[in-house]
Write a structure and sequence with these properties.
Oligomer: single chain
Strand content: 25-35%
Shape: globular
Distance between the termini: 41 Å
CATH architecture of the largest domain: 2-Layer Sandwich
Radius of gyration: 17 Å
Number of domains: 2
Number of helices: 6
CATH superfamily of the largest domain: ATP-grasp fold, B domain
Bound molecules: thymidine-5'-phosphate
Largest sheet: 6 strands, antiparallel
CATH class of the largest domain: Alpha Beta
Length: 246
């Protein structure tokens, strides 16, 4: 077998080609960035932790009928995935107000939203991933109207499954970011990763607004014990078997 050729290096992962053009290999890095890479660091063991958490959550979602790019995870920091064309749209689902929603609307941190909010962002680092309107998304031809509606419905379905799962782990799923891709048949598959890098996760056993944080906000806000937060999410996630209808 030839040495794998690097297709793309992102901030947290590297994508390699494999001998099969329909399959790519994702390598999860320990590197961490925030605020569009203005803040950079390294979280020891993050690559393996995020790969293991994403693996478990993709399997959970597949068991609930959500099509994902995940094939298998042959090594602790490696995931084999179906080759897809990533849509340049970051789909964020919010259950509780935090982060940019609070900064941009004045809604208080921790406010439980009456219903989940789906926010779409243009995935473009040089523009700072701006918030999209549906009209702008269509103007820029980032997706069709039908695809945009499918993204919204899939994101809400994923939110229901993940919220219930994290609840069983004693963790509140505050918000999270998803990316989707199109396969050769133009089917929409959930792609990228689902991990403490891409979710806000609050420990239900803690009331304190700094102590409860188990995700990348520990790094973004210099809260300390970043690895410990990620490790605790991993342990709780792996302790919950994947159950249908759970
Ligand atoms: P936000 O509050 O900064 O808009 O973030 C919403 C969610 O999306 C949060 O769980 C973190 C995640 N996220 C990413 O995964 N990547 C990003 O580049 C950003 C800005 C947020």
């Amino acid at each position: 077998m030839n040495a794998p050729s690097k297709l793309y290096e992102g901030k947290a992962k590297i994508l390699y080609a494999t001998d099969d053009p329909g399959i790519l290999l994702t390598y999860f890095k320990d590197d961490a960035t925030a605020f569009n890479a203005q803040k950079r660091g390294n979280i020891a063991g993050k690559g393996a932790i995020n790969c293991a958490i994403s693996t478990h959550l993709f399997q959970l979602l597949e068991a609930h009928g959500i099509a994902t790019h995940w094939i298998d995870s042959p090594a602790p920091t490696e995931m084999r995935v179906k080759a897809v064309k990533i849509l340049p749209i970051e789909v964020v689902v919010r259950n509780i107000a935090a982060g940019s929603l609070c900064q941009q609307t004045g809604i208080a941190l921790g406010t439980v939203l009456a219903e989940p909010l789906v926010d779409l962002y243009y995935k473009n680092d040089s523009l700072g991933d701006p918030l999209l309107t549906l009209q702008r998304l269509l103007l820029m031809q980032l997706a069709t109207a039908e695809q945009a509606e499918q993204l919204r419905l899939k994101a809400l379905a994923i939110n229901q499954i993940l919220s219930a799962f994290f609840q069983s782990c004693g963790i509140t799923l505050v918000d999270f970011k998803l990316e989707f891709g199109l396969d050769a048949q133009q089917q929409i598959l959930l792609a990228d990763e689902i991990s403490p890098d891409t979710c806000r996760l609050w420990n239900q056993a803690e009331r304190d607004p700094a102590r409860r944080v188990m995700d990348k906000d520990r790094f973004r806000q210099d809260l300390g014990n970043v690895e410990a937060g990620y490790q605790q999410v991993l342990e709780r996630v792996l302790a919950q078997p994947i159950q249908l209808g759970g």
